[in-house]
Amino acid sequence: MASGSLSSSAIKTQTRFPLQEHLRRKTSKENLDRFIPNRSAMDFDYAHYMVTEGVKARGKENPEVCSPSREAYRKLLGEALNMNRTRILAFKNKPPTPPVDFFSHEIITSSTLRQDKTIKPRRVIPQTSERILDAPDIVDDYYLNLLDWGSANVLAIGLGNTVYLWDASNGSTSELVTVDDEDGPITSVSWAPDGRHIGIGLNNSEVQLWDTASDRQLRTLKGGHRQQRVGSLAWNNHILTTGGMDGRIINNDVRIRAHIVETYRGHEREVCGLKWSASGQQLASGGNDNQLYIWDRSTSTSRSPTQWLHRLEDHTSAVKALAWCPFQANLLATGGGSGDETIKFWNTHTGACLNSIDTGSQVCSLLWNKNERELLSSHGFTQNQLTLWKYPSMVKIAELNGHTSRVLHMAQNPDGCTVATAAADETLRFWNAFGTPEVATKAAPKARAEPFSHVSRIR
Protein backbone atom coordinates (compact mmCIF):
# COMPACT_ATOMS: atom_id res chain seq x y z
CA MET A 1 0.00 0.00 0.00
CA ALA A 2 1.16 3.52 -0.74
CA SER A 3 0.85 6.00 2.07
CA GLY A 4 -2.27 8.17 1.81
CA SER A 5 -4.59 9.83 4.25
CA LEU A 6 -7.76 11.89 4.22
CA SER A 7 -9.46 13.29 7.29
CA SER A 8 -11.39 16.37 8.32
CA SER A 9 -8.28 17.73 10.00
CA ALA A 10 -6.59 17.78 6.60
CA ILE A 11 -8.92 20.58 5.50
CA LYS A 12 -7.31 23.52 7.27
CA THR A 13 -8.41 27.11 7.62
CA GLN A 14 -7.33 28.93 4.51
CA THR A 15 -4.62 31.51 5.23
CA ARG A 16 -3.52 32.34 1.67
CA PHE A 17 -5.45 33.17 -1.44
CA PRO A 18 -5.23 30.20 -3.86
CA LEU A 19 -3.24 30.35 -7.09
CA GLN A 20 -1.47 33.61 -6.29
CA GLU A 21 2.26 34.07 -6.72
CA HIS A 22 4.09 32.28 -3.94
CA LEU A 23 6.37 34.65 -2.03
CA ARG A 24 9.61 33.01 -1.03
CA ARG A 25 12.87 34.27 0.41
CA LYS A 26 15.87 33.45 -1.68
CA THR A 27 18.43 31.24 -0.05
CA SER A 28 22.08 32.14 0.10
CA LYS A 29 22.79 29.73 -2.75
CA GLU A 30 20.28 31.21 -5.18
CA ASN A 31 21.15 33.70 -7.91
CA LEU A 32 24.73 34.22 -6.82
CA ASP A 33 27.32 34.49 -9.60
CA ARG A 34 31.08 34.83 -9.26
CA PHE A 35 33.75 34.34 -11.84
CA ILE A 36 36.26 31.63 -11.06
CA PRO A 37 39.52 31.76 -13.05
CA ASN A 38 40.65 28.70 -14.91
CA ARG A 39 43.22 27.08 -12.63
CA SER A 40 44.57 24.85 -15.39
CA ALA A 41 45.82 27.93 -17.23
CA MET A 42 47.57 29.46 -14.21
CA ASP A 43 51.30 29.36 -13.37
CA PHE A 44 51.37 29.21 -9.60
CA ASP A 45 55.20 29.33 -9.40
CA TYR A 46 55.31 32.58 -11.34
CA ALA A 47 52.39 33.97 -9.34
CA HIS A 48 54.17 33.24 -6.08
CA TYR A 49 57.38 34.86 -7.34
CA MET A 50 55.58 37.98 -8.53
CA VAL A 51 53.72 38.60 -5.29
CA THR A 52 56.71 37.85 -3.05
CA GLU A 53 60.31 37.82 -4.20
CA GLY A 54 59.83 39.72 -7.46
CA VAL A 55 58.13 42.63 -5.75
CA LYS A 56 60.72 42.68 -2.99
CA ALA A 57 63.62 42.71 -5.47
CA ARG A 58 62.17 45.57 -7.48
CA GLY A 59 61.41 47.55 -4.33
CA LYS A 60 64.95 47.28 -3.02
CA GLU A 61 66.65 48.37 -6.19
CA ASN A 62 67.52 51.97 -6.72
CA PRO A 63 66.53 53.01 -10.26
CA GLU A 64 69.31 55.58 -10.31
CA VAL A 65 72.02 52.97 -9.58
CA CYS A 66 70.65 50.43 -12.12
CA SER A 67 72.89 50.57 -15.18
CA PRO A 68 71.61 50.20 -18.78
CA SER A 69 73.62 47.01 -19.21
CA ARG A 70 72.06 45.49 -16.09
CA GLU A 71 68.58 46.45 -17.28
CA ALA A 72 69.24 44.86 -20.69
CA TYR A 73 70.49 41.69 -18.96
CA ARG A 74 67.30 41.50 -16.86
CA LYS A 75 65.13 41.93 -19.95
CA LEU A 76 66.90 39.10 -21.80
CA LEU A 77 66.65 36.88 -18.70
CA GLY A 78 62.93 37.58 -18.39
CA GLU A 79 62.31 36.67 -22.02
CA ALA A 80 64.26 33.43 -21.66
CA LEU A 81 62.35 32.44 -18.53
CA ASN A 82 58.97 33.80 -19.73
CA MET A 83 58.81 36.23 -16.81
CA ASN A 84 57.75 39.34 -18.76
CA ARG A 85 54.07 38.89 -18.01
CA THR A 86 51.68 41.32 -16.35
CA ARG A 87 48.73 38.99 -15.52
CA ILE A 88 48.84 36.31 -12.87
CA LEU A 89 45.31 34.89 -13.32
CA ALA A 90 44.31 33.45 -16.70
CA PHE A 91 40.54 33.64 -17.21
CA LYS A 92 40.42 31.56 -20.36
CA ASN A 93 42.51 29.06 -22.22
CA LYS A 94 44.00 29.70 -25.61
CA PRO A 95 41.70 28.67 -28.43
CA PRO A 96 42.35 25.13 -29.67
CA THR A 97 44.23 24.63 -32.89
CA PRO A 98 41.81 24.48 -35.86
CA PRO A 99 41.33 20.87 -36.97
CA VAL A 100 41.39 21.89 -40.63
CA ASP A 101 43.30 24.39 -42.72
CA PHE A 102 40.83 27.25 -43.21
CA PHE A 103 42.83 28.52 -46.18
CA SER A 104 42.32 25.28 -48.09
CA HIS A 105 39.47 25.32 -50.59
CA GLU A 106 37.01 22.76 -49.19
CA ILE A 107 34.21 21.71 -51.53
CA ILE A 108 30.85 22.21 -49.76
CA THR A 109 28.19 19.89 -51.09
CA SER A 110 24.44 19.83 -50.49
CA SER A 111 24.84 16.63 -48.44
CA THR A 112 27.25 18.44 -46.10
CA LEU A 113 24.70 21.20 -45.57
CA ARG A 114 21.93 18.67 -44.89
CA GLN A 115 24.14 16.93 -42.34
CA ASP A 116 24.80 20.21 -40.52
CA LYS A 117 21.09 20.96 -40.32
CA THR A 118 20.33 17.66 -38.62
CA ILE A 119 22.57 18.47 -35.65
CA LYS A 120 20.23 19.64 -32.87
CA PRO A 121 21.42 22.19 -30.33
CA ARG A 122 21.82 20.79 -26.86
CA ARG A 123 18.69 21.35 -24.78
CA VAL A 124 19.15 23.21 -21.52
CA ILE A 125 16.75 21.98 -18.82
CA PRO A 126 16.10 24.64 -16.16
CA GLN A 127 16.76 23.23 -12.70
CA THR A 128 14.24 25.51 -10.97
CA SER A 129 10.55 26.10 -11.52
CA GLU A 130 9.51 29.06 -13.65
CA ARG A 131 6.56 30.04 -11.48
CA ILE A 132 5.20 29.14 -8.05
CA LEU A 133 1.57 29.60 -7.00
CA ASP A 134 0.06 29.02 -3.59
CA ALA A 135 -2.19 25.97 -3.25
CA PRO A 136 -3.53 26.13 0.33
CA ASP A 137 -5.68 23.30 1.68
CA ILE A 138 -4.64 20.76 -0.94
CA VAL A 139 -5.44 17.35 0.51
CA ASP A 140 -2.30 15.30 1.18
CA ASP A 141 -3.66 11.99 -0.09
CA TYR A 142 -1.77 9.76 -2.54
CA TYR A 143 -4.94 8.17 -3.97
CA LEU A 144 -6.67 11.34 -5.19
CA ASN A 145 -6.32 13.11 -8.56
CA LEU A 146 -6.73 16.84 -7.99
CA LEU A 147 -4.97 18.49 -10.96
CA ASP A 148 -5.71 18.62 -14.70
CA TRP A 149 -4.80 20.95 -17.60
CA GLY A 150 -7.44 21.23 -20.33
CA SER A 151 -7.12 21.66 -24.09
CA ALA A 152 -8.28 25.30 -23.78
CA ASN A 153 -5.14 26.05 -21.73
CA VAL A 154 -6.96 26.33 -18.40
CA LEU A 155 -5.66 24.46 -15.37
CA ALA A 156 -8.08 23.08 -12.77
CA ILE A 157 -7.14 22.17 -9.20
CA GLY A 158 -9.14 20.92 -6.24
CA LEU A 159 -8.23 22.62 -2.95
CA GLY A 160 -10.28 21.46 0.00
CA ASN A 161 -13.95 21.84 -0.91
CA THR A 162 -13.29 24.18 -3.86
CA VAL A 163 -12.30 23.81 -7.51
CA TYR A 164 -10.25 26.72 -8.87
CA LEU A 165 -9.44 27.51 -12.50
CA TRP A 166 -6.21 29.21 -13.58
CA ASP A 167 -6.13 30.55 -17.16
CA ALA A 168 -2.57 30.12 -18.44
CA SER A 169 -3.09 32.62 -21.27
CA ASN A 170 -3.54 35.59 -18.93
CA GLY A 171 -2.80 34.27 -15.43
CA SER A 172 -6.31 34.94 -14.12
CA THR A 173 -7.83 32.82 -11.35
CA SER A 174 -11.49 32.03 -10.76
CA GLU A 175 -13.47 29.88 -8.36
CA LEU A 176 -15.68 27.37 -10.17
CA VAL A 177 -17.51 25.67 -7.30
CA THR A 178 -17.37 25.16 -3.54
CA VAL A 179 -19.23 22.14 -2.19
CA ASP A 180 -20.71 21.69 1.27
CA ASP A 181 -18.72 20.00 4.01
CA GLU A 182 -20.96 16.93 3.95
CA ASP A 183 -20.23 16.45 0.22
CA GLY A 184 -16.54 17.40 0.16
CA PRO A 185 -13.70 17.53 -0.07
CA ILE A 186 -13.03 17.47 -3.81
CA THR A 187 -11.44 14.09 -4.63
CA SER A 188 -10.80 14.30 -8.41
CA VAL A 189 -10.98 16.68 -11.38
CA SER A 190 -10.77 15.92 -15.11
CA TRP A 191 -11.32 18.06 -18.22
CA ALA A 192 -13.41 16.76 -21.11
CA PRO A 193 -11.61 16.71 -24.49
CA ASP A 194 -13.36 19.93 -25.55
CA GLY A 195 -11.61 21.95 -22.83
CA ARG A 196 -14.93 23.45 -21.74
CA HIS A 197 -16.66 20.79 -19.64
CA ILE A 198 -15.14 19.33 -16.50
CA GLY A 199 -15.95 16.39 -14.24
CA ILE A 200 -15.57 16.78 -10.47
CA GLY A 201 -15.49 13.76 -8.15
CA LEU A 202 -16.66 14.18 -4.56
CA ASN A 203 -16.12 12.48 -1.25
CA ASN A 204 -19.84 11.53 -1.10
CA SER A 205 -19.65 9.21 -4.19
CA GLU A 206 -21.22 11.76 -6.59
CA VAL A 207 -19.73 13.34 -9.71
CA GLN A 208 -20.64 16.83 -10.86
CA LEU A 209 -20.48 17.92 -14.50
CA TRP A 210 -19.85 21.64 -15.11
CA ASP A 211 -19.83 23.91 -18.14
CA THR A 212 -17.00 26.37 -17.41
CA ALA A 213 -17.92 28.72 -20.28
CA SER A 214 -21.33 29.48 -18.81
CA ASP A 215 -20.31 28.82 -15.18
CA ARG A 216 -23.15 26.43 -14.52
CA GLN A 217 -23.58 22.90 -13.32
CA LEU A 218 -25.10 20.66 -15.98
CA ARG A 219 -25.85 17.58 -13.91
CA THR A 220 -24.86 15.30 -11.05
CA LEU A 221 -24.03 11.65 -11.67
CA LYS A 222 -25.37 9.53 -8.80
CA GLY A 223 -25.86 5.91 -7.89
CA GLY A 224 -22.71 4.46 -9.42
CA HIS A 225 -20.53 4.10 -6.33
CA ARG A 226 -21.51 2.84 -2.90
CA GLN A 227 -21.53 6.06 -0.90
CA GLN A 228 -17.75 6.26 -1.12
CA ARG A 229 -15.46 8.80 -2.71
CA VAL A 230 -14.67 8.99 -6.42
CA GLY A 231 -10.90 9.46 -6.55
CA SER A 232 -10.20 9.01 -10.27
CA LEU A 233 -11.80 10.18 -13.53
CA ALA A 234 -11.00 9.66 -17.23
CA TRP A 235 -12.76 10.92 -20.37
CA ASN A 236 -13.29 9.01 -23.61
CA ASN A 237 -15.18 11.50 -25.81
CA HIS A 238 -18.68 11.69 -24.25
CA ILE A 239 -17.97 8.80 -21.84
CA LEU A 240 -16.81 9.82 -18.35
CA THR A 241 -15.22 6.86 -16.56
CA THR A 242 -15.21 6.99 -12.77
CA GLY A 243 -13.20 4.95 -10.28
CA GLY A 244 -14.25 4.74 -6.65
CA MET A 245 -13.15 3.62 -3.24
CA ASP A 246 -15.56 0.71 -3.64
CA GLY A 247 -13.29 -0.77 -6.34
CA ARG A 248 -15.84 -0.20 -9.10
CA ILE A 249 -15.12 1.37 -12.49
CA ILE A 250 -18.14 2.83 -14.28
CA ASN A 251 -18.59 4.23 -17.78
CA ASN A 252 -21.08 7.12 -17.73
CA ASP A 253 -22.62 8.42 -20.95
CA VAL A 254 -23.19 12.04 -19.95
CA ARG A 255 -25.61 12.63 -22.86
CA ILE A 256 -28.38 10.43 -21.51
CA ARG A 257 -30.43 10.32 -18.32
CA ALA A 258 -29.58 6.68 -17.49
CA HIS A 259 -25.87 7.50 -17.58
CA ILE A 260 -24.39 4.17 -16.36
CA VAL A 261 -23.67 2.17 -19.52
CA GLU A 262 -20.86 -0.23 -18.49
CA THR A 263 -19.31 -1.48 -15.26
CA TYR A 264 -15.82 -2.95 -14.83
CA ARG A 265 -15.22 -5.07 -11.74
CA GLY A 266 -11.89 -6.52 -10.75
CA HIS A 267 -10.28 -4.28 -8.15
CA GLU A 268 -10.81 -5.29 -4.56
CA ARG A 269 -9.80 -1.92 -3.13
CA GLU A 270 -9.86 1.75 -4.17
CA VAL A 271 -9.28 2.63 -7.83
CA CYS A 272 -6.67 5.43 -7.76
CA GLY A 273 -5.55 5.57 -11.41
CA LEU A 274 -7.54 5.63 -14.68
CA LYS A 275 -6.29 6.39 -18.20
CA TRP A 276 -7.83 5.75 -21.64
CA SER A 277 -5.51 5.04 -24.56
CA ALA A 278 -5.37 7.59 -27.39
CA SER A 279 -7.55 5.34 -29.57
CA GLY A 280 -10.19 5.05 -26.87
CA GLN A 281 -10.18 1.26 -27.18
CA GLN A 282 -8.21 0.30 -24.06
CA LEU A 283 -8.55 1.49 -20.48
CA ALA A 284 -5.80 1.10 -17.86
CA SER A 285 -6.77 1.09 -14.20
CA GLY A 286 -4.60 0.92 -11.10
CA GLY A 287 -5.71 0.31 -7.55
CA ASN A 288 -4.77 0.23 -3.91
CA ASP A 289 -4.90 -3.57 -4.18
CA ASN A 290 -1.55 -3.34 -6.08
CA GLN A 291 -3.27 -4.54 -9.25
CA LEU A 292 -3.08 -3.16 -12.78
CA TYR A 293 -5.92 -4.00 -15.18
CA ILE A 294 -6.22 -3.51 -18.94
CA TRP A 295 -9.81 -3.38 -20.24
CA ASP A 296 -10.90 -3.59 -23.89
CA ARG A 297 -13.95 -1.52 -24.70
CA SER A 298 -14.93 -3.75 -27.62
CA THR A 299 -15.89 -6.41 -25.07
CA SER A 300 -17.93 -4.02 -22.90
CA THR A 301 -21.58 -4.79 -22.31
CA SER A 302 -24.32 -3.10 -20.33
CA ARG A 303 -25.86 -6.43 -19.35
CA SER A 304 -23.06 -7.70 -17.08
CA PRO A 305 -19.69 -6.54 -15.68
CA THR A 306 -16.96 -6.51 -18.32
CA GLN A 307 -14.14 -9.03 -18.07
CA TRP A 308 -10.63 -7.62 -18.07
CA LEU A 309 -8.22 -8.20 -20.93
CA HIS A 310 -5.13 -8.42 -18.65
CA ARG A 311 -4.70 -8.59 -14.90
CA LEU A 312 -1.10 -7.63 -14.08
CA GLU A 313 0.23 -8.30 -10.58
CA ASP A 314 3.91 -7.30 -10.78
CA HIS A 315 3.64 -4.14 -8.65
CA THR A 316 3.92 -4.60 -4.89
CA SER A 317 2.19 -1.36 -3.88
CA ALA A 318 -0.67 0.86 -5.03
CA VAL A 319 -0.65 1.69 -8.75
CA LYS A 320 -1.66 5.31 -9.27
CA ALA A 321 0.76 6.62 -11.93
CA LEU A 322 -0.38 5.63 -15.45
CA ALA A 323 0.76 7.06 -18.81
CA TRP A 324 0.05 5.84 -22.35
CA CYS A 325 2.94 6.36 -24.75
CA PRO A 326 2.20 8.99 -27.44
CA PHE A 327 4.42 7.38 -30.10
CA GLN A 328 3.61 3.67 -29.54
CA ALA A 329 -0.07 2.83 -29.14
CA ASN A 330 0.27 -0.36 -27.08
CA LEU A 331 2.97 0.91 -24.68
CA LEU A 332 1.92 1.80 -21.13
CA ALA A 333 4.11 3.13 -18.29
CA THR A 334 3.03 2.58 -14.68
CA GLY A 335 4.46 3.57 -11.31
CA GLY A 336 4.14 1.96 -7.89
CA GLY A 337 3.75 3.48 -4.44
CA SER A 338 6.09 3.58 -1.45
CA GLY A 339 6.26 -0.20 -1.09
CA ASP A 340 7.20 -0.69 -4.74
CA GLU A 341 9.07 2.38 -6.08
CA THR A 342 9.35 1.03 -9.64
CA ILE A 343 8.39 2.26 -13.10
CA LYS A 344 7.26 -0.59 -15.34
CA PHE A 345 6.56 -0.71 -19.07
CA TRP A 346 3.91 -2.97 -20.59
CA ASN A 347 2.84 -4.26 -23.98
CA THR A 348 -0.91 -3.96 -23.48
CA HIS A 349 -1.70 -6.27 -26.40
CA THR A 350 0.15 -9.21 -24.89
CA GLY A 351 0.31 -8.18 -21.23
CA ALA A 352 4.09 -8.63 -21.17
CA CYS A 353 6.23 -6.50 -18.83
CA LEU A 354 8.93 -5.00 -21.07
CA ASN A 355 11.09 -3.35 -18.41
CA SER A 356 11.16 -2.42 -14.73
CA ILE A 357 13.23 0.40 -13.21
CA ASP A 358 13.81 0.87 -9.47
CA THR A 359 13.48 4.61 -8.81
CA GLY A 360 14.28 4.49 -5.09
CA SER A 361 11.19 6.48 -4.07
CA GLN A 362 7.40 6.52 -4.23
CA VAL A 363 6.14 7.13 -7.79
CA CYS A 364 3.21 9.55 -7.70
CA SER A 365 2.71 10.50 -11.36
CA LEU A 366 4.07 9.92 -14.89
CA LEU A 367 4.04 12.06 -18.05
CA TRP A 368 5.44 11.36 -21.52
CA ASN A 369 7.16 14.10 -23.50
CA LYS A 370 5.04 14.68 -26.61
CA ASN A 371 8.04 15.88 -28.66
CA GLU A 372 10.90 13.60 -27.56
CA ARG A 373 11.24 10.02 -26.34
CA GLU A 374 11.34 10.97 -22.69
CA LEU A 375 9.36 10.21 -19.55
CA LEU A 376 8.92 12.46 -16.51
CA SER A 377 8.15 10.99 -13.10
CA SER A 378 7.20 12.73 -9.85
CA HIS A 379 8.13 11.26 -6.51
CA GLY A 380 7.43 11.24 -2.81
CA PHE A 381 9.64 10.06 0.02
CA THR A 382 12.40 10.99 0.43
CA GLN A 383 13.57 13.58 -2.11
CA ASN A 384 10.19 14.79 -3.47
CA GLN A 385 11.79 15.33 -6.86
CA LEU A 386 10.95 15.17 -10.55
CA THR A 387 13.08 12.85 -12.66
CA LEU A 388 13.41 13.08 -16.43
CA TRP A 389 14.29 9.76 -18.13
CA LYS A 390 15.47 8.96 -21.65
CA TYR A 391 13.41 6.17 -23.20
CA PRO A 392 14.08 3.29 -23.77
CA SER A 393 17.53 3.38 -22.07
CA MET A 394 15.98 4.91 -18.89
CA VAL A 395 19.10 6.96 -18.31
CA LYS A 396 18.45 9.91 -16.02
CA ILE A 397 18.60 13.17 -17.96
CA ALA A 398 17.82 15.51 -15.08
CA GLU A 399 16.46 15.72 -11.55
CA LEU A 400 14.37 18.76 -10.65
CA ASN A 401 14.07 19.76 -7.01
CA GLY A 402 12.06 22.44 -5.27
CA HIS A 403 9.07 20.82 -3.61
CA THR A 404 9.49 20.05 0.07
CA SER A 405 6.78 17.37 0.24
CA ARG A 406 5.72 14.56 -2.08
CA VAL A 407 4.76 15.65 -5.59
CA LEU A 408 1.30 14.15 -5.79
CA HIS A 409 0.05 15.46 -9.16
CA MET A 410 1.39 16.45 -12.60
CA ALA A 411 -0.29 17.91 -15.69
CA GLN A 412 0.91 19.12 -19.12
CA ASN A 413 -0.17 22.22 -20.98
CA PRO A 414 -1.67 21.69 -24.48
CA ASP A 415 1.62 22.08 -26.39
CA GLY A 416 3.29 19.57 -24.07
CA CYS A 417 6.19 21.79 -23.00
CA THR A 418 5.23 23.15 -19.58
CA VAL A 419 4.50 20.79 -16.69
CA ALA A 420 2.53 21.81 -13.61
CA THR A 421 3.11 19.96 -10.34
CA ALA A 422 1.09 20.11 -7.13
CA ALA A 423 2.55 18.84 -3.88
CA ALA A 424 1.65 18.38 -0.24
CA ASP A 425 3.78 21.47 0.53
CA GLU A 426 0.76 23.50 -0.70
CA THR A 427 2.50 24.92 -3.76
CA LEU A 428 1.76 24.62 -7.47
CA ARG A 429 4.94 24.84 -9.56
CA PHE A 430 5.49 25.21 -13.31
CA TRP A 431 8.53 23.65 -15.00
CA ASN A 432 9.95 23.92 -18.50
CA ALA A 433 10.87 20.25 -18.30
CA PHE A 434 10.23 19.23 -21.91
CA GLY A 435 11.72 22.24 -23.73
CA THR A 436 10.32 23.93 -26.81
CA PRO A 437 9.28 21.90 -29.85
CA GLU A 438 11.17 22.42 -33.12
CA VAL A 439 8.16 24.15 -34.62
CA ALA A 440 7.51 27.69 -33.43
CA THR A 441 5.41 27.79 -30.29
CA LYS A 442 1.76 27.98 -31.26
CA ALA A 443 -1.04 29.69 -29.43
CA ALA A 444 -3.30 27.55 -27.29
CA PRO A 445 -5.49 25.42 -29.56
CA LYS A 446 -9.14 26.27 -29.87
CA ALA A 447 -11.56 24.08 -27.99
CA ARG A 448 -12.84 21.17 -30.02
CA ALA A 449 -16.48 20.79 -30.90
CA GLU A 450 -18.51 19.95 -27.83
CA PRO A 451 -19.27 16.24 -27.72
CA PHE A 452 -22.48 16.75 -25.74
CA SER A 453 -23.57 20.32 -26.48
CA HIS A 454 -27.26 19.45 -26.30
CA VAL A 455 -27.07 18.41 -22.64
CA SER A 456 -29.20 20.65 -20.44
CA ARG A 457 -29.42 20.77 -16.67
CA ILE A 458 -30.24 17.19 -15.63
CA ARG A 459 -30.53 16.13 -12.00
Structure keywords:
459 residues; mainly beta; 4-stranded antiparallel β-sheet; disordered C terminus
How big a fraction of the residues is strand?
25-35%
Number of H/I helices: 4
Average pLDDT, rounded to a whole number, is 83
CATH H-level superfamily title of the domain at 131-431: YVTN repeat-like/Quinoprotein amine dehydrogenase
Q: Specify Rg, calculated over alpha carbons.
A: 30 Å
N- and C-termini, Cα separation: 37 Å
* SSE-based structural type: mainly beta
* Number of DSSP strand runs: 28
Parts with pLDDT < 50 across at least 5 consecutive residues: 7-14, 25-36, 100-110, 439-451, 453-459
Q: If you consult CATH, what is the topology of the domain at 131-431? A: Methylamine Dehydrogenase, Chain H
Shape: elongated
- Helix content, binned percent: under 10%
Largest sheet: 4 strands, antiparallel
Briefly summarize what is shown.
With 459 residues, the chain is mostly beta strands. It is built from four helices and 28 strands. A four-stranded antiparallel beta sheet has the order 1-28-27-26, with no helix packed on it.
Detailed description of the structure:
The protein is mainly beta and 459 residues long. It has a domain at 131-431: YVTN repeat-like/Quinoprotein amine dehydrogenase (Methylamine Dehydrogenase, Chain H, 7 Propeller), CATH 2.130.10. The protein is built from 4 helices and 28 strands. It has helices spanning 44-51, 53-60, 68-80, 110-117; strands spanning 131-134, 147-149, 154-159, 162-167, 172-178, 186-191, 197-202, 207-211, 216-221, 230-236, 239-244, 248-253, 260-265, 271-276, 282-287, 292-296, 310-312, 319-324, 331-336, 342-347, 352-358, 363-368, 374-379, 386-390, 395-400, 407-412, 419-423, 427-431. The chain has a 4-stranded antiparallel beta sheet with strand order 1-28-27-26, with no helix packed on it. Strands 2-3-4-5 form a 4-stranded antiparallel beta sheet, with no helix packed on it. A hairpin with a 5-residue loop joins strand 19 and strand 20. The longest helix is centred in the N-terminal third of the chain and has 13 residues, at 68-80. It is elongated and about 115 Å long. The protein starts with 43 loop residues before the first helix and ends in a 28-residue tail after the last strand.
